[in-house]
Amino acid sequence: xxxxxxxxxxxxxxxxxxxxxxxxxxxxxxxxxxxxxxxxxxxxxxxxxxxxxxxxxxxxxxxxxxxxxxxxxxxxxxxxxxxxxxxxxxxxxxxxxxxxxxxxxxxxxxxxxxxxxxxxxxxxxxxxxxxxxxxxxxxxxxxxxxxxxxxxxxxxxxxxxxxxxxxxxxxxxxxxxxxxxxxxxxxxxxxxxxxxxxxxxxxxxxxxxxxxxxxxxxxxxxxxxxxxxxxxxxxxxxxxxxxxxxxxxxxxxxxxxxxxxxxxxxxxxxxxxxxxxxxxxxxxxxxxxxxxxxxxxxxxxxxxxxxxxxxxxxxxxxxxxxxxxxxxxxxxxxxxxxxxxxxxxxxxxxxxxxxxxxxxxxxxxxxxxxxxxxxxxxxxxxxxxxxxxxxxxxxxxxxxxxxxxxxxxxxxxxxxxx
Length: 418
Prior knowledge:
CATH architecture of the largest domain: 3-Layer(aba) Sandwich
Number of domains: 2
CATH class of the largest domain: Alpha Beta
Radius of gyration: 22 Å
Number of strands: 11
Distance between the termini: 54 Å
Helix content: 40-55%
Largest sheet: 7 strands, mixed
């Protein structure tokens, strides 16, 4: 217990964490401060504290999932936010250079953990995206957009307001992306990592383009195809179960939203080479991905084991290192700093409201795992080093207007009245 208390003393300064031991003893860490929560953590297993100290991310996660620790009011969002808020990415501390040995070790470990071999890609995707469709219906918007929304009009009030406004924010995200693609009727568009088909169907409906969406999730494929059939547009919006490395054809535009996180750094050059060759000479591409504010990093053990095996969040430098050798010029970069934190908060609130239904689909352990995943993601975007990058690429410097006015004009038209 002494080691855990030492760990918490260093970790918590603003806001309070009350630790209640198995024997009922209590210790409080930090001090009350506006904007920081007051959270009570209960140790229900004498070994839980040791596990947290030895493996902070995975040890804590598994102890929480198994009920060996608990939080009053099950406020996992408050606990994760308290820890992250005390240690924000914008810390203001002086920086020290890593030694060559440390840099080499980090580089080797990153390469090993980011390898997303072709043989494992489909399995990794299925681990997350082939979960019950009923689960995603419980917390996503009506179009099942499982990526960062665009909060053009941030709702005032509490987190419940985000949940209500989520559908509009996801519609605005699709408009924001469509505007950057500079689409014209009858163009051919490739959607890499098409999810349940919402973006492809939107682009056809709003912009009059033909779309081919590709995925490695059989569950997503079935839903997307049925949606296109039900809408009577299956001749114009088609979906295929295929790895991007095996895709053939020629397209005016490529869009990829929330898929790049599953590519793996060793394959970035190959990804962009394939995209270059799939684009027409005057083609344009829009890549939407979670990214790191700083340099290269590593996927934490909890996420790697339970949420996104094979997943990795890239630094901007890693993305550009993959695209630069492949004759794709960057024509626009936007960093959405706060939008995903708002999105994951909305998802978290919706999951909390549907707790009984989620536990009926799976069990209480799954619900705690999923809640921790969404709370951790929210804290990473609100206090950690994560954000969203949208990168626009072109093969030809003359393919797009020379000012960004066309984006704003098109987006306003697609969004329509608030």
